[in-house]
Amino acid sequence: MSTQKRLEGKIALVTGASHGIGRAIAKRYADEGATVIALGRNVGALEELDDEIRAAGGKAVLLPLDLTMYEKIDAMGASIYERFGKLDIVVGNAAVLGELAPVGHIDTQMFENTYAVNVTANFRLIRSVDKLLRFSDAGRAIFVTSGASAKGRAYWGLYASTKAALESLVLSYAQEMDDSKVKVNLVNPGRIRTTMRATAYPGEDPETLPTPETITDIFVDLAADDCPHHGEILRA
Q: Which residues carry out catalysis?
């Protein structure tokens, strides 16, 4: 890891920060000098993350929140402005797998819940922080997608379609930012050792997979002032 702190003085919001990829991004951003607003549902895991960040000399603010609490997401941008006066980086990482099942057999409540977290919550997140990102000298919006979105795949219709919808939403937002200082991108992390991956592939040996910590470089690159990418889907 570089000793240069590329995100010094930045304010970064990371969703799904209590575990997996979001946790790894939050820790890396703190190591790079950012003040991290760590959003997640697991209070205990967030507190452990906070302890680790502070022990390493970093700064974190915990935001225990379910992303489907839309009214609180809507109010979040104003709250961040009141406390910090700005927001430089947002990482929309939180997602759920839903269920792997034939499309005709997907539970309707499961369908709605999965779209609520994977798509609607990110839409509300963009609405909430859009003005703050525009105020930043180098606003950065980064969203985590999946290779599952690329084409139809039996039994993956629910999760894959949410990621396809997310990509369309974010790429549209990116085009709307073409004349601003904000850069918007998506990252496909590939095969990574996460709880979601273990649920989707129960017979797979997790020790054969890279850890979330191994893919944080691209999230720093996309968050940095010198980021050359905009409106792209990049592979970690």
A: 159
Return the domain boundaries, the chain. Answer: 11-228
CA distance 143 to 154: 25
Q: Give, to the nearest 10 degrees, the angle between helix 157-176 and helix 108-115.
A: 30
Give the separation between CA 161 and CA 148, rounded to whole angstroms.
8
Residue 189: closest CA among 157, 161, 222 = 222
Q: CB atoms < 10 A from the CB of 233, how many?
A: 17
- Is 131 within 8 Å of 174 (Cβ atoms)? no
Q: What is the pLDDT of residues 97-116, one digit of tens each?
A: 999 999 999 999 999 999 99
Consecutive H or E run containing 187: strand 183-188
The CATH code of the domain at 11-228 is 3.40.50.720
Burial class (CB in 10 A: 0-12, 13-18, 19+), 106: middle
Q: What does the alpha-carbon distance between residue 221 and residue 181 come to, in Å, rounded to a whole number?
A: 16
